[in-house]
Every structure is written in C-alpha cells, then in structure tokens.
Amino acid sequence: MYSCKDITLFIVGFFLPPVAVFFKRGCSVDLLINIALCCLAAVPGIIHAWYIIHKYNDHFEDLEAGGLHYQPLPNEPHSAVSYGAVNNSNLALVRCKVPNVCSRRMDYDEYLRQELFLKLKPDCVELLKVSFVSRSNSARITTLLRGIHQTLTESLESGHARVFNETLREYVLFPLLGLWRRRAKATDNEPMPDDIKDAWLQCILWLLKYGHWQDDMIPEMLKQLLLLFTLCLGGIKRALSHNPDETARQTSISEETKLVAVKCIMAVMPVRRMDGPTDGARYTKALEENQQTVLIVALRSEAFRPVLGPIILSMLDIVRNEQYLDLRMTALDALRCVLVDNIGDPDVLASVLPGVLSDLLHVVVKGHLESRSLVARALDLIRDVISETLADESNNHLVKDITSFQDLRQFAREGKTDNNGDITSHPHDSQEPLSYNVNRTSAWLNGNKHQIKAVLNQLLTRRNHSEPSVRLAFSNLAYKLLSTCTLTLDNSTGILLETLVLYMDDSYSMVSTPTRDHLTAITNHPRFQTSISSTLKQSLTNWMESLPQYLTSSNESSKLNAISLVRGFALMLGHEANTVIRNVWNRVELGWFNGLRMEDDDLGVTEVKGLLEGFDNFALSDPRNESQSVNFPPKRFVFLENARVVQHLKRTLRTIGALADTDILIDHCMNYFAFGNNKDGLWGPAAFVVNELLIGAANLIPTSGELSDNIRYTGTPQAEDSKLHGLAQYIFRALVSLDIVSYPIPDQSITSHNIQTKTITSSPHRDYLSTLCMVLETIATTSLVLKSTFKLELIDALYPIIEHIGVPNARVSTTAQLTLATIAHSCDYASPQDLILDNVDYIVNTISTRLRNIALYPQTPRVFSALIQFAGSSVLPLLSDVIDEMFDGLDAWSLNERICADICTCLLAAVKVISRELDQESSLPTGSEPDSKSARSDGVSAEIAEFVGKYSEFWFGDVEEVAKESKSTEEIGQYFLAQAHKMEAATDEEDDKLGLPTEQELREDLEKTENEMRDAQQAGQLHEAKEAEQPPLTRNQQICVNIVRKTHHFLAAASPRLRSDILKLIRTVIPVLSNRPLELNPLIHTIWPSLIRRLSDPEPYVILNALTLMQAIAEGCGDFLSRRVMDDVWPKFQTLFHAIQQDPAQLHPSHPGYSVYSRPHKALIAILRTLRLIVQHVPLRDEVTFDILSRTRDFLNSLRYHREIQVECIELYRRLQQTHYDAVWIYCSALVPSRSHLEARIKGTFRTIDIPDYMRQGVRGEGNAFALNVNEVLSI
C-alpha cells in the first residue's frame, strides 16, 4: 500500500522518470543511472523510476542491503515494522517502533523524536549496507559511526536527549550489533580496526549512559556486553594465553580505544561511576532497586566469575603497564566500580585480593616517578578493597571482641575447630566442581593478616611522599583500616597508628587537620579505649630507644619521621606518657646526647666589627608583654643538617617537658656538668636538652592551636610555679658556676694575630663555642621562668654575660647580647641599657678590681668596652677612675703588646661614644658668629679675601668664567707685582696716556692696604684672645686629651697591630677637639714626628691608617698643616708614589692579579684622597701645587688606571682648580693633542699660548686617553 506522495511520483515517473527519482533520492547515483537509462530508451528509465519509488516508499523502509524481505506484522498498526534477516534458515527478529510520519497529531516531544530519527536514518541505513568489516572499508564505516555519535551528542547538548526512547535506541542498536557480527568474515582472527572499534564503542557508551539501556538490561545481556568490552581490551586472549606479555604485544590496541572500552565497562555496571553533568564531577548512579538487585546478585554469582576475572586482569594490566595517565586513572575507577561498588562481597573479593594488592603495590612502591594523582587513587582502592574484604562486621564469625573469660573460652574452642581449614580451596584435590570462592576460615584470616601486614610495611615506606595529596591518601588508608579492621588486622595496628601520628604535624593543613580528626575519632573508638593505651606506650618506648640510631644516620627523612613519631605518641598518651619517659630516659639520654653533638665550624667567623653599635635591635618593645621572645642564632649539629629536623626536635623535647616530670629528667642531664670538664663534648647537647625541656615545662612558647582539643594534651606545665622556679634557680646556679661562663674563652684558642680576619684555629675545645652559646641561651630561659625574681641573681649573672659580649667571636657576642636582652625583659626593664645603668656600680667596682690584676683577668677591657657601648657617655664620669687605672696599666704593661692593645681598644670605644654624641649636638651655640678661619674652606682669612675680591675686577676684567673665590697670599703678591709693572710702563710711555693711576693714588692705595693688613692682624690677635677666654674643656674632651697624651708613644711600638690601633684612636679624638685648636694643635705637634714615620711603615694597613689620620688633621686643623706640607708631607707622598709606580703593570685593570682590594690600589686611593683634603683645607704654595699636578696627571689616563683612581684624581684637580685655575688649565691642556676645544672656551680671555714641550713629556700619542677626564675636570 502506497501513500499519496508515492502514487503521485508513480505518475510523474511515467512521463518524467528522472524528476520522480530526484524527488525520492535527490542528487545521487540512482539519478545518474536513471538519466543514462532514459538516454538509451524510455521504457528502461520508467521501469527504474518505478523501482526506486517502490523500494523507498514511505511504509516499507529498506534498512539492510541484499535479499532481505520486510513485511508488516499481523495484528500490528502500520507504525510497527519487523526488521528480519533470512540467512541459512536463521531468523533474527528485532522489533522497532518507527514514528508514523503521516500522523498529524503529535506533541512537541514526538516532533523532536521524528527530527532525531530523520537525522539518524541515513547513517544507520548506510551502516546496514556494509556486508563485511575490514581495513579496506574502515574509513567509510568510521565516518558513519562518527556521524551517528555526533548526532547523539548534539541531541544531548541541545537538551533533546529526553525524547530518546526505547524505539530509537533499538533503531540505533540494531545496525551497531549487526556491524560487530559482520566483521572480517574471511579471517575470523583478524581484529576489528582500532578506528572502527573506537567509534563503535563511543556509540555504545552513549547508549549506556544516556539511552536508558540498563532499564531493560538482563543478566545474560550484561554478561555478553562485559565479554564484548573485555574482548575490545584484549583481556580474554591475555587471560587464556600461556604467555600474557607476548599476547599483549601481538594484540596492540590503541590507548584511546582501551579508554572508551574501560568507560563502557563502568557504564554497564548496575552501580556506576561516571562523568557528572558539570565540571567532570564524580557521582554514583544506581538503577531502580529491583533491577539493581537482580544484576548485582548475578554479578556475585559464580556464573559471572569467568567474565569478571579477565576484566580485573585487564584493568590491573592497564594500571601497571600503560603510559597514558587518563587511561590508568580510569582503569582504577573501573576497578573500584567493579570490586567495591558492585561486587562488594567479601567471599568474592577474597579470591582477587592477593592479585589486586600485588599490582597496586607495584604502582605505589616501585613507581617512584608515578603521578601523584595515580598513586593517591591506587591507595584509595587498596584501602577500600582491604576494608571490604577484612572488615570486622564481615568476619565476625572469625574474630570476636573478647571482654570476659567466657568469650575467651568460646573463642579458643572455635579456634580449635577452624585450624584445619585451608586459606583457599583446592578444586583439583576433590571431586566437587570448580569453585571461585574462598573458604574464609581462621587459617585463611591468619595467613592474610600476615600477608597484608607485609604489604602494608612495603606500602608505608612511601609515606614520606612529597605530595600532600598522597600523604592524605596514606592517612585515610590508615584510619579506614584502623576503624573497620580493628580485630582482623590487630597485628598492623602499630604501623597504622604510626602513619597517623606521623602526619599529625604535617606542614600542610590539608593533611594535618584531617589526620588530627582521625586520631580524635580513634581515641574515642570503643574498641580502642582499652587497647590503644598499651599499644601507644609500647610504640613510644620503641621509638625513643631507636631515635639515637636515626639521629646519627644520613637520611634526613628518617630522622624527621622518628622525631615526629616520638612527639606524636607522647601527645596521644598525654600525661600517661610520663611513666614511659621516666623508665626509658635513663637508658636513652646518652644516645640522644651523642646524636645531638654540636659543631663549631660555622662559629669560626671574623671578629665583631663595631661591637654592639646596633644593639637597640635586640631590645624588646614592651618588656611586660610575655608573648614576645628573642630568637637566638640557629644551632649547628654534627648529625642534623636540616633546619626542619632541628625544629621538630625542639618541639618534641618541649612536649616531653610539658608531659613528664621535668625535674627528674633535668636532674639526669645536669649530672653531666658535675664532672668539671667537657672532654666528651656532652655539655652542649645536655644544655640544649635542658633548655628545651624547661621551655616545655614552663610553656614559654604556647602550642595552642597545634592539636585538636580532644587529644589529651593541655599545653600547661605540670609542675607548680614554686617547683618550677626552684628548678630554674637550680639550673642557673649550676650553669653560671661553670668555667666556660666564669672564665671566658682564652684568646689563644679563639683568634690569631691577623688583624683583618680573626678566625678560630684548631684547638682542643672543638665544641667549646657552641657549648658556651647553648649555656648562655639556657641562662636566658631560666630568667624567663623566674621573671622579676631573677633580679636576685643579677650579681652572679650580669658581669659574666657582659664579659662575653666583648668576646671577638660574632656568634658568642650575639648570643650574649640576646641573653642580656632577655634578662632585661624578664626583670621588667625597658631596655638592656636601663638594666646596666641600674647596676652600674657593681659592674664598675668589678672592672676596677680586676684591672688591678689584669694579668689574671685579661678579658676585663672587653667588659669596659661593652659597658661603654651600652650605657653611653653618661657613664664616663663614673669610669674616670677606671680610665686612670687603664693609663697605669699602659705604663705597667707597656712591654705586653696584647694587654696594651686590649686597653687601647677600650679607650677607642670610649672615644667613639663621645664622638657619636657630639655629632648629634650642635658644634656651636645658637647665635654665635662662626670663626673667620673656620668659615673659609681654603684657610684664607675673611679680611684678605675681602681685599682680593675688591680688586679682582680690576685684574680679571669681565671674564665670567673666572671663579669668584677669595685669592691666596701668592695671588696677592702677584697683584702688587702687576701694579709695579704698570707704574713703570706709565713712566716710559707718558705720551700714550693709558689712564693708569697716578703715583699719589697708588701711594694712597698702598697706605690703605697697609691699614687693612694691620686691621686684619689686630682682628687675628683679638680672635686669639677670645679663644683664650673660652671655658675649659669638658670632662669628656679632657678624657680624650689625656688618652692621646698617654697613648701616642705607642706609635713607635713594635707591634703593627698596636700602632694601627693608636692611629685609629687618635683619628677618633680629632673630631672631638676640632673646635678647640689651642688644645688640639699641641697634641698634633706632639704626635707629628711619629705620624710622619708611620707613612714609611713596613705594614701597608698601618700606612692606610696613617693616611686616614692625616685626612682628619687636614679637616680639623688646616693651619697646622700649611707650614708642614712642603717640608714633611709631600716628600713622603712622593716616596709612596714612587714605590707604588715602580711596577705600573700591577695597577693596570687588565693585569691578571689586579683587584680593587689590592694594597697598591687601596694605598693610591688613600693618598689621592688625602691630597684632596689637604688642598681643600690647607693653602699651598705654587711650587707644591705644580709638583702635585706633575706627579698625579698620569692618573687621568683612562687606559692605564682603574676608574676609581681616575675619579679620585679628577676630584683632586677640581679642588686645585678653585685656587690655581691657571695651573690646572695649563697642565690639562698639555695632556690632550688638540686644544681646539680648550681655545673655544678661553677665546677672548687669554692670548693664545704655546704649551712647553717638557710639560708634554710622557703623554705624546696618548692624548685621547686623557681627553675624557680632562673635559670632566674643566667641565667642558
């Protein structure tokens, strides 16, 4: 029966056959055939057109090619069609409800369903035409399958997947299953090509996920689909093969195909894990209860064992051997879906447990380069499989929670009957049929307990993984097994607890926070409340005893684990750990001390420069704020290299101090100090342990927030305050009486005599410094415990601590400073300075007493230096007697260079304090007039400067470039010479009438000049009279004068260090007396001969200090140098220049051994800088100026000398230019080959002059090397 449309097309086909074919088939091969037949004859074309209309009529769809017959089913409406295939008498009937396209009454969903059908129809029809599947037609088949999948996917994305009903599913499924049946008929062993298989599996996966296929799923269909998907993975061949690895290589399947097949296995399961609708979230979807129960029961039956075995084997093979991470992750999810979510039967899981654990163990333990996500997911699967198989509830017939003697007797009786059972069944030894179940007996449980413990021991070797997600997975594994397998895995409780305890203080909160919650839940678990305490105590004992061997090992990770476990078990036990610690401490303390040996290699540092100059940084802002603390320098241990390990060790000792009887533990440790020597090097470790135990006992560093509130640790000290104070006093008095505290480090074991780098040399006191630092820190801790009551101990503590502040070693000095700051904080002082000033009388008396016996107490000057630096100049009046005793000591011990050098260091510290305070004050009182000589930087008085300025315009004309500085006395003489020449010229050439002054006018000018000079002389005498009327020196200035008078003769000492120290001392005194020239000049006159001799000293650093002192003299009293530069200073400088320039190559920047820190470089820089200051502050005669220019012009060579030397020479020339501009200009012009750039500058000012040849000697051919610096000097 045909539709109206088909009848119309029959009529059209009779007259116009191609038109009818076009309306039915479009532009296709059928249309071309019809046109060809029409060209041959009309009748064949008409017959072909009617055939096409009949074949593709609206009620009889031909969905499969080749001799198939379709007919309406009886008693069925026209919308139901039977698709049958007759092949060798085998009939396969599949019913499909096709939408009736002629229906005019359809709702919107029916309309959408029709649209989807029409989109699927072409590809499904073409797919049914495929007669066989092979690589030759794989491209066409793949295109058709991908078209079907794309149509299905688009319907899902457009939200029309709801109209996909059973009819459409069967419509798509029939050609897909037919395609699988028709693969490679010629060679049945030829696998389906991967591209076809991948596209085919994609369509099946869509039908499983969104086609509601499982609603009609029956167990037999589930089994067939699982076999099909396993075949796509190659798992069946591998399971049946004798050589699985060889079979896997032969059946190479792409990773993409395997991934889709694994997803299909997950999707076909009754309880499945699949990609969520948003963000790829994971969720579990279950079928209706009845259907789910039927399928799950079928999965757990023995009939499915041959199917599930290859699936599990294939998944494990993928996890172990594949490289594609997404595939491996999906395989792990599929394993969990099959084993945990769907099977979940302990009897079934017991049969696959060994194989699953073996392969997953390989992934976690041996795959050290595996992805963290893969390892974490493998751990989660191990956790779930073990907990499902060995859960206490599932094995309650094998284990019992024994709470009475009756339970124990019953358990023993049952154990006797079960001892003969086997771990697994042996089907070959009986006549019963093969069974895949495991007979779970007591023997099976005992065997698996030991095997799983071995697996866990290997597994937990990787618990120190660097990734937090993996550590969290280990934590969850331990907690799940402890909570669900408490009785079945009782032999693994210890190692699982260790894992949780290890992560309790993890550096990542995402690990530590859940772990603490797990521990809290474990402690509250009813089965653990009676048994966990003994387990924890035994574990704490074992780890405390084994900690020494971990401390001395080279594995930092194992050290950190052992320390963390000791602390964790102690925290879990709370104050119950006191008994364990007391019993074990006596046995382990010596091993702990040997593992905590300290080293002094990092303490061999340079001497402290500028001792205590920045000590304000150590003062606490609020001494009454108990939350503040001072951070001491980090400790260095022989065996502990990682700072994190040391930090965990401190926390562990503080925890022990908070939980145990601290007085007993500390008493054991203090016995090591009673021997009187430190030959074994155990004082440092003992002091370290005592310090940390005391901090924990007093809770000086609160630990609130580190642990969950449910864990039994309060964080409060166990001892009462009075008991704790008594313990702190006992520790302090024992430590302060030690020789290393009472008698500071001997000098010969600390420093060498090298002034630049005072480093520790080899000495028998290998750990002396570290022990001393640790003892000082422990004293600081006792002060924090005693608080204000520590004031009673200041008499014993204050002087030794200040004495160690003066030690040349930086670490010891810094530790002593911090100790003093901590004591000041504990005793409610605002700063260490206040503490010292409040107890200065005691300190001064002790210093004075020991200075009289300085041979017995050679460290006394260090205490004086520290005291001065702390208290400032306000304490100097109290130390006047001490300073006098130092002067006496200098006289008495003048032959002992070491004592004299120490005393000079103390005096230098005092002068520095005075100088620093004077810098902060104004040098002159407000409103006073500045001194005429000091007001001039060039040393010329104001009167002469005014006179020169008055006549400068007459001499220089209108030249703007001439500097408007006051002229020197040499220029004044040149002025009068010029006037005399002009008078002679006026006499010889009277007729020219040049307009020069008359003789009378010149006489008046001369008389006026003499009067001005007389007034200037009177003003200078008046200035000297005013200076004589100045008040006497201050006390501090008088101290400085006395220091110079008492120490200057040491400039001739045999020790170069002492000579250098004296030069530094005098250099510091000069700024203090700069405004008192009447006192300063005689002092300089006294030291002048020795200072000049020091410019020829054999030690270079002494020469540098002498030059520095010369600079200070030039700045402070230039008038004194004005009479001595020509006679004393400049000849010495010429000698130094000659010595330095003997080997010019050593100053060349390209020389291999050249350095800015070399002696010639530093000496040359110092000489040039000294000359610059002398030129700036001292008036020089012309011959000296010319000599300086001649000697130093080579240093402007940019090719021969370092840039730093060039800069110093440029600054020197600029200073000379202010007073001797013509001379500088001439010498600079002589250094360049062309004067065009210079002549342009002086055009109209001077006549063109020729530079003498002698001034160009040594610079010919190198003018370009000077040009840049010359331009910079002349500011061109």
Structural class category: mainly alpha
Tally of DSSP β-strands: 4
Task: Please bin the fraction of helical residues.
Answer: 55-70%
Average pLDDT confidence is: 74
Q: Helix count?
A: 54
Structure description:
- The protein is mostly helical and 1276 residues long.
- Among the domains are: 4-56, no CATH class; 346-395 and 446-528.
- About 17% of the residues have low confidence.
Structural features:
single chain; 1276 residues; mainly alpha; two-stranded antiparallel sheet; 62% helix
List the topology elements:
Blueprint: H1 4-15, H2 17-25, H3 29-40, H4 42-55, E1 80-87, E2 90-97, H5 108-128, H6 138-157, H7 166-181, H8 194-210, H9 219-233, H10 235-240, H11 244-250, H12 255-268, E3 271-275, E4 282-286, H13 289-300, H14 305-321, H15 325-343, H16 346-366, H17 372-389, H18 405-418, H19 442-459, H20 468-484, H21 493-502, H22 509-523, H23 532-551, H24 556-573, H25 577-595, H26 643-659, H27 662-670, H28 683-698, H29 721-736, H30 739-742, H31 768-786, H32 794-805, H33 810-826, H34 832-838, H35 840-852, H36 860-871, H37 880-892, H38 897-920, H39 932-935, H40 942-956, H41 969-988, H42 999-1028, H43 1035-1047, H44 1056-1072, H45 1077-1094, H46 1100-1116, H47 1118-1122, H48 1125-1140, H49 1159-1177, H50 1182-1192, H51 1203-1219, H52 1221-1229, H53 1236-1242, H54 1263-1273
Antiparallel strand pairs: 1-2, 3-4
